[in-house]
Design brief:
This protein has about 600 residues and is α/β, with parallel strands linked by helices. The chain folds into 2 domains: about 1-90 and about 570-575, NK-Lysin (Orthogonal Bundle), CATH 1.10.225; about 120-560, Metallo-dependent phosphatases (Purple Acid Phosphatase, chain A, domain 2, 4-Layer Sandwich). Helix content is about 35%, strand content about 15%. It has helices spanning about 1-5, 10-30, 35-45, 50-70, 75-85, 175-190, 210-230, 255-275, 280-290, 330-345, 365-375, 450-460, 475-480, 495-505, 505-515, 530-540, 545-560; strands spanning about 120-125, 195-200, 235, 295-300, 300-305, 350, 380-385, 395-400, 410-415, 430-435, 440-450, 470-475, 590, 595. Converts sphingomyelin to ceramide. One of its GO terms (molecular function) is metal ion binding. Keywords: Disulfide bond, Glycoprotein, Glycosidase, Hydrolase, Metal-binding, Zinc.
């Protein structure tokens, strides 16, 4: 393997594909040694922190053995694995058209129903990421993936550069104080919610340290808190990529031997949702057998379809199997059946998931999802709700057959809810919707925010609670003064398309969007007029597939004058030690799951 990695005769793609063949052979002939080999390679070639790399390899090795063993290297599996798991090795493959036969043709009179004049409110919050090991006063500006923790001998050397506030910080997950404060705040802003959506990610971001027990305990405690503070409010939950063990991994049920490794998780969460009276026993049983996907009817006339979008996430290594298929997990096929059932019944549908499979998914699944949304919009699908990005965003989904993006080609909208965690330097926020009580179209969105980034330390020093405020109303912020909406009109896909087009000409409107995207964070990166980031942001607001998202990024790089041709650094080892400690693979304690001397042990919450 070292000879391969140091080869001067192979290009990066050849090197990666040969490495995949070696990994498969190793997995078939000596699976018990794979974990140690991967940790050795981490120590020499990884550009992650050494403690993080060793921990990740320990947690992933068993599933990687199964994945490498089943990978079809004569087909597209190995190539896709190189392109997406080792960016810069092989070029991203050209996408193939996704193919699907719908049960029925789209009705010729497929239009959004007329407004009813009646309104309800619906809560939406996301990306909780509670950190039970958060330590007030620890380093908030560290070299780890998340800070505000005591990593023992793996702490950054030298004095603390920035003190972790009681209320959180921009490189840290959610402290319990902020989590409880957020839950106390929700009823103040949304006292009359008919039901609520939580679009995933309960668990903290320390994927290299967590255990199966840690994930289970975090979910138990967090869902208990949701139930305690939200009381009788029906809360519908989607699985996030950090809600599994190992993080990001989710085998589809089409591979029973792999699926069984995650069945404990789906049994676990479905049982909690049922116990909290959020879903029925029948719905919970469906979730147990369908990767945490379920359908429910929050109100008469509305079906809510909850997807486990981790099945299409490129960091889920199980997606590197069966890459010749459009929908190897089968979940999008189930989605079509449910949408057709709702069309036949004349009911409206909301789709929710942690992330829409149009950004960080494989191209064919993304194209298939766009076709499904186009087939059942705007008459059936009334809204799509996601999280994941920690920011306050939206994406307009356009007709895949349209020659250009227009008001007429805009068919639906994906509402990406803001996060509770301040990680990624954005303030914690919650959202709620004003919704037509009969058509379930979105009439308005509201966001409330607490300025933890700018005021957290001040609030702590003065023994104050965070001050939450109503940040903005989408209807008031984005309505065109020259073309006002009627009071009963929803925020239609055409409305959001026009909003993006206005942002391209109105710099102040775009600046306002950027402020709200970061939830008023003073640490948000600037995005100047005419810059590549401005182009990319505006482009991606109307990018309906991962292919289009990638094209936005490539065009932005061209605009900037520099192609992004990063290649993996195969030779440079991690160069910074923590408190003088070098990693020795033998120091890694498999039973306890941490490196000897780290001083952090997982015992649940």
């Amino acid at each position: 393997m070292e000879d391969l990695l140091n080869s001067t005769e192979l290009d990066p793609c050849q090197m990666c594909q040969r490495g995949m063949r070696m990994a498969k052979e190793f997995s078939l002939q000596a699976p018990e040694y794979l974990s140690g080999v991967l940790r050795e390679l981490c120590a020499k070639y990884s550009f992650r922190r050494l403690d993080a790399c060793a921990g990740l390899m320990e947690r992933l090795s068993e599933q990687l053995v199964g994945i490498f063993s089943e990978m079809n290297l004569e087909g597209s599996d190995g190539y896709y694995a190189c392109a997406y798991s080792f960016p810069g090795s092989c070029p991203v493959p050209l996408h193939q058209p996704a193919d699907i036969a719908f049960p029925k043709a789209k009705p010729v009179n497929a239009v959004q129903p007329a407004p009813s004049g009646q309104t309800i409110q619906v809560l939406h919050f996301s990306d909780w990421h509670l950190d039970p090991l958060y330590k007030v006063g620890s380093e908030a500006k560290c070299s780890h993936n998340i800070c505000c923790r005591d990593y023992g001998s793996w702490n950054d050397p030298g004095p603390i550069k920035k003190r972790a506030s009681k209320w959180g910080d921009g490189k840290c997950d959610t402290p319990i104080a902020l989590g409880l404060n957020t839950l106390e705040t929700i009823p103040k802003f949304v006292p009359n919610a008919s039901f609520g959506l939580f679009t995933g990610d309960i668990v903290s971001h320390d994927a290299w340290m967590i255990s199966e027990k840690y994930v289970a305990d975090e979910e138990i405690r967090s869902y208990e808190l949701f139930k305690k503070y939200l009381q009788d409010l029906k809360l519908y939950v989607a699985m996030g990529n950090h809600d599994s063990y190992p993080s990001d991994q989710a085998p589809g049920r089409q591979r029973p031997d792999s699926y069984i490794t995650h069945k404990w998780l789906y049994d676990h969460v479905a049982g909690i949702w049922e116990k909290n009276n959020w879903i029925t026993s029948i719905e919970a049983e469906y979730a147990r057998s369908h990767n945490a996907m379920f359908m429910t009817r929050p109100m008469d006339g509305l079906k809510l379809i909850t997807l486990n979008t981790d099945l299409y996430y490129v960091r889920n290594f199980f997606t590197m199997l069966d890459t010749n298929l459009d929908d190897p997990s089968g979940m999008l096929h189930d989605l079509v059946l449910e949408l057709q059932d709702s069309e036949d019944r004349g009911e409206r549908v909301w789709i929710m998931g942690h992330m829409a499979p149009i950004t960080r998914s494989l191209p064919r699944s993304s194209l298939l999802f766009q076709k499904i949304v186009a087939r059942y919009s705007p008459h059936v699908i009334a809204g799509i709700f996601t999280g994941h990005y920690h920011q306050d965003k939206f994406i307009v989904v356009h007709d895949p057959d349209a020659l250009e993006q227009t008001e007429e080609s805009a068919l639906n909208v994906i509402y990406q809810g803001p996060s509770v965690t301040p990680l990624d330097r954005s303030n914690p926020a919650i959202r709620w919707y004003d919704v037509d009580a009969k058509t379930f179209s979105i009439l308005n969105t509201h966001t409330a925010v607490a300025d933890i980034i700018g005021q957290g330390a001040y609030w702590e020093a003065n023994d104050m609670e965070p001050e939450w405020k109503h940040e903005y109303s989408a209807r008031e912020t984005y309505a065109d003064p020259a073309d006002p909406l009627d009071p009963e009109d929803p925020l239609s896909p055409a409305f959001w398309h026009r909003t993006v087009e206005r942002m391209k000409e109105d710099r102040e409107l775009f600046k306002t969007y950027l402020q709200y995207e970061s939830k008023l964070s003073e640490e948000a990166k600037p995005c100047h007029k005419g810059s590549a980031c401005e182009y990319e942001a505006l482009c991606q607001m109307q990018a309906s597939t991962v292919v289009q998202h990638q094209q936005c990024t490539e065009d932005a790089e061209t605009l900037k004058g520099t192609k992004n041709k990063k290649k993996p650094n195969k030779k440079k080892p991690f160069s910074v030690t923590r408190a003088g400690k070098e990693v020795i693979v033998g120091d890694y304690d498999e039973e306890r799951g941490y490196i000897e001397g780290l001083g952090v042990e997982r015992r649940g919450m």
